[in-house]
Each structure stands twice: as C-alpha cells, then as structure tokens.
Amino acid sequence: MDIFKILYTVFFFICIAISVTIIFHIIRYSYNKAATVLMLIVFIVVTSTLLFANSVLFSSMKLEKVLPIDSINNLIDSKNQDDKPWKTPF
Question: What is the model's pTM?
Fold first, then answer.
C-alpha cells in the first residue's frame, strides 16, 4: 500500500506546483492591484483548505479495506492450488 502513498505525495506536489503557477499568473497579469489582492486571498484560502482537507481524508482512509489486495492474492493462490480449475474431457 506504500505505492499509493507515494503516488498521493507526487499528486500533492503537482497540485502545489500548479497552484504556484496560478498565483504567479494572478500577480503578473492582473490589471488592478486591489483585484490582485482579493483574488490572491480567495485563491490561497480556498486552495489551502481543499488541499488540507484532501490530505487529511486521504491519511485517514484505510487502504487495506478500500483495496483488498490480500483477498486478490488469496483468490490467485486458490486458483493455483487447483491444477486445472476447469473440466477437461480427457
């Protein structure tokens, strides 16, 4: 299950990099300084809230129950125990 944590960490850093790019474009290409400040405050508050909630919910999720890899392995092992799970006419 560690692979999902690694993938989530990569996803999280990609989201942060995209957010930094959006912040740069808000600052660089805004017409009005008052609108820039307002857009930055709204964007940073909403984005940080969503990223924080997403990380808390992901860390509290029990991946073993959501993705029962062990039961899939047991299914494969049970098929391997039978030489031939199908009936042959010979």
Answer: 0.68
